[in-house]
Amino acid sequence: MKTNNKSNQLQTSAIALLNLVLFFSTSEKAAAQNNAGIIGIDHVGINVPDLNNAVDFFSNVLGFTPVTQLGPIPLDAAWKDLNHINPGTGAVTIKMINAGTGASIEVFQYDDNKGSHVHPNADDAGASHIAFYTADIQVAVKYLKSKGVKILGEPFLTPSGDTAGESWVYFETPWGSKMELVSYPNGKGYEKSNSKTVLWSPKNAAAYKPNTNDFDAVKNKALIEKHLEVWNEKDQAKRTSLLNQIYAVDIEMVDRNFIAVGNDEINSFIIGLQQKNPDFKFTVKSVETNHNVARLYWQFGSKAKPATVSGMDLFVIENGKVQKLYVFVDAK
Protein backbone atom coordinates (compact mmCIF):
# COMPACT_ATOMS: atom_id res chain seq x y z
CA MET A 1 0.00 0.00 0.00
CA LYS A 2 2.86 2.36 0.82
CA THR A 3 4.41 1.66 -2.56
CA ASN A 4 1.14 2.40 -4.34
CA ASN A 5 0.66 5.68 -2.44
CA LYS A 6 4.16 6.79 -3.31
CA SER A 7 3.56 5.90 -6.95
CA ASN A 8 0.30 7.85 -6.99
CA GLN A 9 1.99 10.85 -5.38
CA LEU A 10 4.77 10.81 -7.96
CA GLN A 11 2.24 10.52 -10.79
CA THR A 12 0.19 13.41 -9.39
CA SER A 13 3.30 15.54 -9.00
CA ALA A 14 4.39 14.81 -12.56
CA ILE A 15 0.98 15.80 -13.95
CA ALA A 16 0.99 18.98 -11.89
CA LEU A 17 4.50 19.83 -13.13
CA LEU A 18 3.48 19.19 -16.74
CA ASN A 19 0.39 21.40 -16.36
CA LEU A 20 2.58 24.13 -14.84
CA VAL A 21 5.01 23.93 -17.78
CA LEU A 22 2.16 24.07 -20.27
CA PHE A 23 0.63 27.02 -18.42
CA PHE A 24 3.82 29.04 -18.50
CA SER A 25 4.50 28.08 -22.13
CA THR A 26 1.03 29.27 -23.14
CA SER A 27 1.38 32.40 -21.04
CA GLU A 28 4.77 33.21 -22.57
CA LYS A 29 3.34 32.75 -26.07
CA ALA A 30 0.40 35.03 -25.32
CA ALA A 31 2.72 37.59 -23.72
CA ALA A 32 5.01 37.52 -26.73
CA GLN A 33 2.11 38.12 -29.11
CA ASN A 34 0.73 40.94 -26.97
CA ASN A 35 4.06 42.64 -26.33
CA ALA A 36 5.24 42.45 -29.94
CA GLY A 37 1.90 43.71 -31.21
CA ILE A 38 2.33 41.76 -34.44
CA ILE A 39 -0.90 41.26 -36.38
CA GLY A 40 0.31 39.43 -39.48
CA ILE A 41 2.47 39.54 -42.60
CA ASP A 42 2.52 42.90 -44.40
CA HIS A 43 4.80 41.98 -47.33
CA VAL A 44 7.54 39.72 -48.58
CA GLY A 45 10.65 41.18 -50.19
CA ILE A 46 12.69 39.81 -53.09
CA ASN A 47 15.74 41.07 -54.99
CA VAL A 48 15.60 41.05 -58.78
CA PRO A 49 18.22 41.81 -61.45
CA ASP A 50 15.85 43.97 -63.53
CA LEU A 51 13.07 45.90 -61.79
CA ASN A 52 11.15 46.72 -64.97
CA ASN A 53 11.19 43.08 -66.05
CA ALA A 54 9.92 41.95 -62.65
CA VAL A 55 7.17 44.57 -62.49
CA ASP A 56 6.07 43.62 -66.01
CA PHE A 57 5.82 39.96 -64.95
CA PHE A 58 3.90 40.65 -61.74
CA SER A 59 1.63 43.14 -63.49
CA ASN A 60 0.99 41.81 -66.99
CA VAL A 61 1.33 38.06 -66.32
CA LEU A 62 0.09 37.62 -62.74
CA GLY A 63 -2.27 40.60 -62.86
CA PHE A 64 -0.95 42.43 -59.79
CA THR A 65 -0.75 46.21 -59.37
CA PRO A 66 2.45 48.23 -58.72
CA VAL A 67 1.65 50.95 -56.18
CA THR A 68 4.63 52.75 -54.61
CA GLN A 69 8.28 53.32 -55.54
CA LEU A 70 11.31 54.56 -53.57
CA GLY A 71 14.67 55.42 -55.01
CA PRO A 72 17.14 55.06 -56.36
CA ILE A 73 18.47 55.48 -52.81
CA PRO A 74 22.28 55.72 -52.32
CA LEU A 75 23.53 53.45 -49.53
CA ASP A 76 26.36 54.55 -47.24
CA ALA A 77 29.16 52.30 -46.05
CA ALA A 78 27.72 51.89 -42.54
CA TRP A 79 24.36 50.69 -43.88
CA LYS A 80 26.04 48.26 -46.26
CA ASP A 81 28.19 46.86 -43.45
CA LEU A 82 25.20 46.53 -41.11
CA ASN A 83 23.08 44.75 -43.74
CA HIS A 84 25.85 42.62 -45.27
CA ILE A 85 25.81 44.39 -48.65
CA ASN A 86 28.89 44.36 -50.86
CA PRO A 87 30.77 47.70 -50.52
CA GLY A 88 30.82 48.17 -54.30
CA THR A 89 27.05 47.79 -54.81
CA GLY A 90 25.19 50.95 -55.88
CA ALA A 91 21.86 52.56 -55.04
CA VAL A 92 18.66 50.58 -54.42
CA THR A 93 15.22 51.09 -56.00
CA ILE A 94 12.19 49.58 -54.29
CA LYS A 95 8.74 48.90 -55.76
CA MET A 96 5.78 47.73 -53.67
CA ILE A 97 3.22 45.62 -55.50
CA ASN A 98 -0.36 44.86 -54.47
CA ALA A 99 -0.55 41.09 -54.91
CA GLY A 100 -4.33 40.71 -54.73
CA THR A 101 -5.82 39.28 -51.54
CA GLY A 102 -2.94 38.86 -49.11
CA ALA A 103 0.51 40.24 -48.37
CA SER A 104 2.14 42.68 -50.80
CA ILE A 105 5.41 41.98 -52.64
CA GLU A 106 8.36 44.37 -52.22
CA VAL A 107 10.77 44.19 -55.13
CA PHE A 108 14.37 45.45 -54.82
CA GLN A 109 16.88 46.27 -57.55
CA TYR A 110 20.46 47.25 -56.66
CA ASP A 111 22.39 49.27 -59.24
CA ASP A 112 25.79 47.83 -60.19
CA ASN A 113 25.07 44.86 -57.94
CA LYS A 114 28.30 43.23 -56.71
CA GLY A 115 26.48 40.51 -54.79
CA SER A 116 25.93 36.95 -56.00
CA HIS A 117 23.90 36.67 -59.20
CA VAL A 118 23.25 32.95 -58.67
CA HIS A 119 19.92 31.89 -57.16
CA PRO A 120 20.21 29.59 -54.13
CA ASN A 121 19.36 25.93 -54.66
CA ALA A 122 16.26 24.58 -52.98
CA ASP A 123 18.29 23.05 -50.14
CA ASP A 124 20.53 26.10 -49.57
CA ALA A 125 20.12 28.18 -46.41
CA GLY A 126 18.02 31.22 -47.20
CA ALA A 127 16.26 29.63 -50.18
CA SER A 128 12.62 30.68 -50.27
CA HIS A 129 9.60 31.00 -52.51
CA ILE A 130 6.24 32.77 -52.75
CA ALA A 131 3.09 30.66 -53.14
CA PHE A 132 0.05 32.06 -54.98
CA TYR A 133 -3.43 30.64 -54.39
CA THR A 134 -5.60 29.81 -57.40
CA ALA A 135 -9.13 28.46 -57.53
CA ASP A 136 -8.23 26.09 -60.40
CA ILE A 137 -4.60 25.05 -60.65
CA GLN A 138 -4.98 23.41 -64.08
CA VAL A 139 -6.37 26.62 -65.56
CA ALA A 140 -3.61 28.66 -63.92
CA VAL A 141 -0.89 26.31 -65.24
CA LYS A 142 -2.34 26.47 -68.74
CA TYR A 143 -2.39 30.25 -68.57
CA LEU A 144 1.20 30.54 -67.32
CA LYS A 145 2.42 28.15 -70.01
CA SER A 146 0.70 30.31 -72.64
CA LYS A 147 2.80 33.23 -71.34
CA GLY A 148 6.02 31.25 -71.72
CA VAL A 149 6.45 30.63 -67.98
CA LYS A 150 8.50 27.54 -67.09
CA ILE A 151 6.45 25.09 -64.99
CA LEU A 152 8.58 22.75 -62.87
CA GLY A 153 6.77 19.44 -63.32
CA GLU A 154 3.04 18.82 -63.09
CA PRO A 155 0.54 19.74 -60.35
CA PHE A 156 0.61 17.22 -57.49
CA LEU A 157 -2.52 16.42 -55.48
CA THR A 158 -1.71 15.49 -51.87
CA PRO A 159 -3.64 12.24 -51.24
CA SER A 160 -3.58 12.08 -47.43
CA GLY A 161 -2.42 13.72 -44.23
CA ASP A 162 -2.82 17.29 -43.00
CA THR A 163 -2.71 18.78 -46.51
CA ALA A 164 -4.92 16.20 -48.23
CA GLY A 165 -6.85 17.87 -51.02
CA GLU A 166 -4.13 20.43 -51.77
CA SER A 167 -2.63 20.66 -55.27
CA TRP A 168 0.64 22.47 -55.89
CA VAL A 169 3.32 23.00 -58.49
CA TYR A 170 6.42 25.20 -58.74
CA PHE A 171 7.25 27.59 -61.56
CA GLU A 172 10.12 29.94 -62.46
CA THR A 173 9.98 33.67 -63.00
CA PRO A 174 11.79 35.14 -66.04
CA TRP A 175 14.74 36.02 -63.75
CA GLY A 176 14.97 32.51 -62.28
CA SER A 177 13.22 32.77 -58.89
CA LYS A 178 11.16 29.74 -57.88
CA MET A 179 7.52 30.37 -56.99
CA GLU A 180 4.47 28.17 -56.43
CA LEU A 181 0.86 27.74 -57.41
CA VAL A 182 -1.34 26.14 -54.76
CA SER A 183 -5.04 25.23 -54.68
CA TYR A 184 -7.40 23.57 -52.18
CA PRO A 185 -10.94 24.63 -53.17
CA ASN A 186 -12.47 22.04 -50.81
CA GLY A 187 -10.12 22.75 -47.93
CA LYS A 188 -7.29 20.68 -46.45
CA GLY A 189 -7.36 17.42 -44.54
CA TYR A 190 -6.53 18.85 -41.13
CA GLU A 191 -9.60 21.13 -41.23
CA LYS A 192 -11.90 18.11 -41.03
CA SER A 193 -10.72 17.43 -37.47
CA ASN A 194 -12.19 20.80 -36.41
CA SER A 195 -8.77 22.25 -35.65
CA LYS A 196 -8.89 25.15 -33.18
CA THR A 197 -6.46 27.14 -35.33
CA VAL A 198 -7.05 27.29 -39.08
CA LEU A 199 -4.40 28.50 -41.50
CA TRP A 200 -5.22 31.79 -43.20
CA SER A 201 -6.26 31.41 -46.83
CA PRO A 202 -6.73 34.07 -49.51
CA LYS A 203 -9.73 32.15 -50.84
CA ASN A 204 -11.58 32.71 -47.57
CA ALA A 205 -10.47 36.31 -47.21
CA ALA A 206 -11.57 37.11 -50.75
CA ALA A 207 -14.97 35.58 -50.11
CA TYR A 208 -15.73 37.42 -46.88
CA LYS A 209 -13.62 40.59 -46.88
CA PRO A 210 -14.07 42.64 -50.05
CA ASN A 211 -11.54 45.42 -50.57
CA THR A 212 -13.23 48.73 -49.73
CA ASN A 213 -11.20 50.35 -52.52
CA ASP A 214 -13.36 48.34 -54.90
CA PHE A 215 -16.39 50.40 -53.82
CA ASP A 216 -15.22 53.50 -55.70
CA ALA A 217 -18.15 54.20 -58.05
CA VAL A 218 -16.19 56.54 -60.34
CA LYS A 219 -13.32 54.10 -60.83
CA ASN A 220 -15.68 51.18 -61.32
CA LYS A 221 -17.71 53.04 -63.95
CA ALA A 222 -14.52 53.89 -65.87
CA LEU A 223 -13.36 50.27 -65.58
CA ILE A 224 -16.63 48.86 -66.90
CA GLU A 225 -16.75 51.31 -69.81
CA LYS A 226 -13.31 49.99 -70.84
CA HIS A 227 -14.79 46.50 -70.88
CA LEU A 228 -16.39 47.07 -74.29
CA GLU A 229 -13.09 48.44 -75.62
CA VAL A 230 -11.74 44.92 -75.14
CA TRP A 231 -14.58 43.40 -77.14
CA ASN A 232 -14.31 45.96 -79.96
CA GLU A 233 -10.52 45.91 -80.28
CA LYS A 234 -9.35 44.11 -83.45
CA ASP A 235 -5.60 44.36 -82.78
CA GLN A 236 -4.45 41.27 -80.85
CA ALA A 237 -1.63 42.98 -78.91
CA LYS A 238 -3.80 45.92 -77.85
CA ARG A 239 -6.65 43.60 -76.85
CA THR A 240 -4.31 41.46 -74.73
CA SER A 241 -3.01 44.55 -72.96
CA LEU A 242 -6.58 45.70 -72.23
CA LEU A 243 -7.56 42.23 -70.99
CA ASN A 244 -4.70 42.28 -68.48
CA GLN A 245 -5.61 45.78 -67.31
CA ILE A 246 -9.31 45.13 -66.77
CA TYR A 247 -9.77 41.43 -65.98
CA ALA A 248 -8.33 39.32 -63.15
CA VAL A 249 -6.08 36.45 -64.23
CA ASP A 250 -8.65 33.83 -63.15
CA ILE A 251 -11.73 35.76 -64.28
CA GLU A 252 -14.88 33.69 -64.87
CA MET A 253 -17.25 34.72 -67.63
CA VAL A 254 -20.60 32.96 -67.27
CA ASP A 255 -22.77 32.91 -70.40
CA ARG A 256 -26.06 31.02 -70.71
CA ASN A 257 -24.31 28.51 -73.01
CA PHE A 258 -20.80 28.22 -71.55
CA ILE A 259 -18.33 29.32 -68.87
CA ALA A 260 -14.97 30.80 -69.90
CA VAL A 261 -12.17 30.93 -67.32
CA GLY A 262 -9.14 33.16 -67.76
CA ASN A 263 -8.23 35.78 -70.33
CA ASP A 264 -7.13 33.28 -72.96
CA GLU A 265 -10.55 31.60 -73.16
CA ILE A 266 -12.33 34.96 -73.24
CA ASN A 267 -9.94 36.22 -75.91
CA SER A 268 -10.64 33.16 -78.07
CA PHE A 269 -14.38 33.78 -77.80
CA ILE A 270 -13.94 37.45 -78.76
CA ILE A 271 -11.91 36.48 -81.84
CA GLY A 272 -14.64 34.07 -82.95
CA LEU A 273 -17.34 36.67 -82.38
CA GLN A 274 -15.46 39.27 -84.42
CA GLN A 275 -14.87 36.84 -87.27
CA LYS A 276 -18.58 36.01 -87.46
CA ASN A 277 -19.60 39.67 -87.22
CA PRO A 278 -16.78 41.73 -88.81
CA ASP A 279 -18.87 44.91 -89.17
CA PHE A 280 -20.52 44.77 -85.76
CA LYS A 281 -19.56 46.86 -82.72
CA PHE A 282 -20.58 47.00 -79.06
CA THR A 283 -21.91 50.31 -77.72
CA VAL A 284 -22.85 51.36 -74.19
CA LYS A 285 -26.44 52.12 -73.30
CA SER A 286 -25.93 52.71 -69.57
CA VAL A 287 -23.71 51.75 -66.61
CA GLU A 288 -24.77 51.40 -62.96
CA THR A 289 -22.62 50.58 -59.91
CA ASN A 290 -23.38 49.36 -56.39
CA HIS A 291 -20.30 48.94 -54.14
CA ASN A 292 -18.10 46.40 -55.97
CA VAL A 293 -20.87 45.21 -58.30
CA ALA A 294 -21.71 46.89 -61.61
CA ARG A 295 -24.02 46.30 -64.52
CA LEU A 296 -23.70 47.50 -68.09
CA TYR A 297 -26.52 47.58 -70.63
CA TRP A 298 -25.16 47.20 -74.17
CA GLN A 299 -26.13 46.75 -77.79
CA PHE A 300 -24.28 45.01 -80.59
CA GLY A 301 -24.70 45.59 -84.30
CA SER A 302 -23.67 47.41 -87.47
CA LYS A 303 -23.80 51.16 -88.15
CA ALA A 304 -27.08 50.68 -90.00
CA LYS A 305 -28.58 48.55 -87.24
CA PRO A 306 -26.59 49.13 -84.01
CA ALA A 307 -29.07 47.27 -81.76
CA THR A 308 -29.17 43.97 -83.65
CA VAL A 309 -28.50 42.27 -80.31
CA SER A 310 -28.85 43.81 -76.84
CA GLY A 311 -28.18 42.64 -73.34
CA MET A 312 -26.72 43.28 -69.90
CA ASP A 313 -23.39 42.32 -68.29
CA LEU A 314 -23.09 41.98 -64.50
CA PHE A 315 -19.62 42.43 -62.97
CA VAL A 316 -18.04 41.58 -59.62
CA ILE A 317 -14.93 43.71 -59.02
CA GLU A 318 -12.11 42.61 -56.72
CA ASN A 319 -8.79 44.40 -56.23
CA GLY A 320 -9.52 46.84 -59.02
CA LYS A 321 -10.24 44.21 -61.68
CA VAL A 322 -13.24 42.26 -62.95
CA GLN A 323 -13.31 38.89 -61.17
CA LYS A 324 -16.72 37.65 -62.34
CA LEU A 325 -18.67 38.51 -65.48
CA TYR A 326 -22.25 37.31 -66.03
CA VAL A 327 -23.65 37.83 -69.52
CA PHE A 328 -27.39 38.22 -70.18
CA VAL A 329 -28.56 38.44 -73.79
CA ASP A 330 -32.06 39.81 -74.43
CA ALA A 331 -34.51 37.51 -76.16
CA LYS A 332 -35.25 38.49 -79.75
Please describe what this structure looks like.
Helix 6 runs antiparallel to helix 7 (236-246). Strand 11 (281-290) and strand 12 form a beta hairpin. This protein has helices spanning 2-36, 51-61, 77-82, 137-146, 202-208, 217-232, 236-246, 263-276; strands spanning 43-47, 65-73, 92-98, 104-110, 130-133, 150-157, 167-172, 178-183, 247-254, 259-261, 281-290, 293-301, 309-318, 321-329. A six-stranded mixed sheet has the order 10-9-14-13-12-11. It has a four-stranded mixed sheet with strand order 1-4-3-2, covered by helices on one side. It has a four-stranded mixed sheet with strand order 5-8-7-6, covered by helices on one side. It contains eight helices and 14 strands. The protein has three domains: 41-117, Signal recognition particle alu RNA binding heterodimer, srp9/1, CATH 3.30.720; 122-209, Signal recognition particle alu RNA binding heterodimer, srp9/1 (2-Layer Sandwich); 212-329, Nuclear Transport Factor 2, Chain: A (Roll). It has 332 residues and is of the alpha+beta class.
Summarize the helices and strands and which ones pair or pack.
Elements: H1 2-36, E1 43-47, H2 51-61, E2 65-73, H3 77-82, E3 92-98, E4 104-110, E5 130-133, H4 137-146, E6 150-157, E7 167-172, E8 178-183, H5 202-208, H6 217-232, H7 236-246, E9 247-254, E10 259-261, H8 263-276, E11 281-290, E12 293-301, E13 309-318, E14 321-329
Parallel strand pairs: 1-4, 5-8, 9-14
Antiparallel strand pairs: 2-3, 3-4, 6-7, 7-8, 9-10, 11-12, 12-13, 13-14
